[in-house]
Please model this.
Amino acid sequence: MAKLKGADAALQRYTQFKKSGESRYKVDERTLNVLGYTLLRAGQDQDAIAVFQRNVQEYPESSNVYDSLARRTRK
Model:
């Protein structure tokens, strides 16, 4: 979905899954990290950065989310 519709659409879907509380959807920092790296591999750097930034907002206590964002914004 993210590759076709962009990060905004994917993040809206993530929010829906998170709010639903359904156990079949595991939404956590790993979910967003995988999405971010998937976008990077697809060459969608700006979308990946948006996802990594959202991950920092959602999980500010996780060092991993900052690491992922830093790797992408460092050049």
Observations:
- The mean pLDDT is 83.
- The longest helix spans residues 7-20.
